[in-house]
Write a structure and sequence with these properties.
Layout: E1 9-12, H1 18-27, E2 32-35, H2 43-47, E3 51-52, H3 56-62, E4 65-68, H4 73-80, H5 86-91, E5 95-98, H6 104-116, E6 120-123, E7 126-127, H7 130-135, E8 138-144, H8 146-156, E9 160-165, H9 171-199, H10 204-213, H11 219-230, H12 239-255, H13 261-275, H14 286-296
Helix pairs in contact: 9-11, 9-12, 9-14, 10-11, 12-13, 13-14
C-alpha cells in the first residue's frame, strides 16, 4: 500500500520517554518515520516497522505531522531550524506537536512563529514516566486551535489512556506544571518518609504495606515505594529532568507572584542530588540528598526567594527523559 506525505507521522526524540512513546505508535500501525541524535536509539523502532530518517529535515520532508519529544528549547529550535531560513520551509504545511516540557512563554512564541510560517501547532505534554509510557498509559494534556487538537487526538491515542483539552496555548503546559508540582512534592515527601522510618529502625517493608493499605496510596507511591525500599535508582524520570521541571514551575510561579514554598525546598534537594553526581538516576534518588543532610549534621541554608538562574548543573540537550 502506498503511504504518502499526509499519512506519515514523524517522531523526533527517542529518549527514555520518547522511545516507548514512539514504539506505541509503531505497534498500533501508525506509518512512522523517526530520527534521534543518537542513532542507536532508532533501532527498536526500525525493528517495529518504523522508517529511520537521516536527519530532522528528512522527517519533515516525509511526514505531514511531526511529534517532538525533545529535552529543551535549544534542542527544539535546532531540530526546527528556528532562526534560520530553513524554519519556514520546514514547518509550512505541517502540524508540529510539542510533547516535551518547556517554559510556557517559549511554547507561546513557538506557536506564533509556526503559524506565521504557515504551519499548525499543538501543545501536548504528558503526565507519566517511563513505565506508563511503555504501557501506553500516559495522560495527555492538549492545547491549541480546536480543529488542530481534534485532528491530533486519534494520533496520540496509542500513547495515552486519557487526554484532556486545556484550551489555547500554553494551557497544556501550565496544567502539566500544576500536575508536576504535586508529583515532585509527593515523591520528595515519600522519600523523606522512608528516610525517617529507616533512621528510626523501622521495617521499611512494613511502611510500604501500611502506605499501600491506607488512604495515601496511589499509583505513584506503589511504583516509587518499592524503588525506595530496594534502593533501586534505575531511571524512570531522571533527577536532572525533575530539577529542570522544578525550575520551570518555580519560574512560572514567580512570574505570577505566587508563593511555592514546598517546591522551593524540593528545588534545593534535587539540586543537591545532582551536585552529588546522581543526576542520571531516578527521582527517588532525592533520598540521597536527605541522607547527606542528616549525616552531615548541618542546618540547610535558607532557600533563595528567587529561582536560581540557569542551573548550576547543565541539563542535557539529549531527548527528554
Amino acid at each position: 500500500m502506498y503511504v504518502g506525505f499526509a499519512d506519515f507521522v514523524g517522531f523526533v526524540g527517542l529518549g527514555v520517554m520518547g522511545q516507548p512513546m514512539a514504539l506505541s505508535l509503531a505497534r498500533a500501525g501508525t506509518p512512522l518515520v523517526v530520527w534521534n541524535r543518537t542513532p542507536e536509539r532508532c533501532e527498536p523502532l526500525r525493528a517495529a516497522g518504523a522508517e529511520v530518517a537521516a536527519s530532522p529535515a528528512e522527517v519533515f520532508d516525509r511526514a505531514g505531522t511531526v511529534i517532538l519529544m525533545l529535552a529543551d528549547e535549544a534542542a527544539i529550535d535546532t531540530v526546527l531550524g528556528r532562526g534560520t531560513p530553513d524554519f519556514a520551509a520546514r514547518v509550512a504545511g505541517h502540524t508540529v506537536v510539542h510533547m516535551g516540557t518547556t517554559s510556557a512563554e517559549y511554547s507561546g512564541g513557538l506557536e506564533g512563529d509556526i503559524r506565521a510560517a504557515g504551519g499548525t501547532y499543538v501543545e501536548a505534554p504528558v503526565s507519566g514516566s517511563r513505565v506508563p509510557a511503555e504501557q501506553g498509559e500516559l495522560v495527555g494534556m492538549l492545547a491549541g486551535d480546536d480543529d488542530a487538537v481534534a485532528a491530533v487526538r486519534p494520533l496520540l491515542a496509542p500513547m495515552c489512556r486519557e487526554m484532556f483539552g486545556c484550551g489555547p496555548v500554553p494551557g497544556a503546559l501550565l496544567m502539566k506544571f500544576s500536575v508536576n508540582l504535586f508529583l515532585i512534592t509527593l515523591v520528595t515527601g515519600l522519600a523523606e518518609a522512608f528516610h525517617f522510618a529507616d533512621r528510626h529502625g523501622l521495617d521499611q517493608r512494613l511502611l510500604r504495606d501500611v502506605l499501600d493499605a491506607g488512604p495515601m496510596a496511589s499509583a505513584v507511591s506503589r511504583i516509587k515505594g518499592p524503588k525506595l525500599l530496594e534502593r533501586d535508582f534505575t531511571v524512570q524520570a531522571a533527577v536532572t529532568n525533575v530539577l529542570e521541571n522544578n525550575r520551570l514551575i518555580a519560574e512560572a510561579a514567580r512570574k505570577a507572584d505566587l508563593a511555592s514554598p514546598l517546591l522551593d525546598v524540593c528545588h534545593s534537594l534535587f539540586q543537591e542530588t545532582v551536585a552529588q553526581g546522581y543526576g542520571g538516576e531516578d527521582m527517588v534518588a532525592v533520598l540521597r540528598a536527605l541522607e547527606a543532610r542528616t549525616d552531615g549534621g548541618s542546618v540547610p541554608k535558607p532557600v533563595p526567594t528567587k529561582v536560581p538562574t540557569p542551573m548550576s548543573v547543565p541539563v542535557r540537550t539529549e531527548e527528554r527523559a
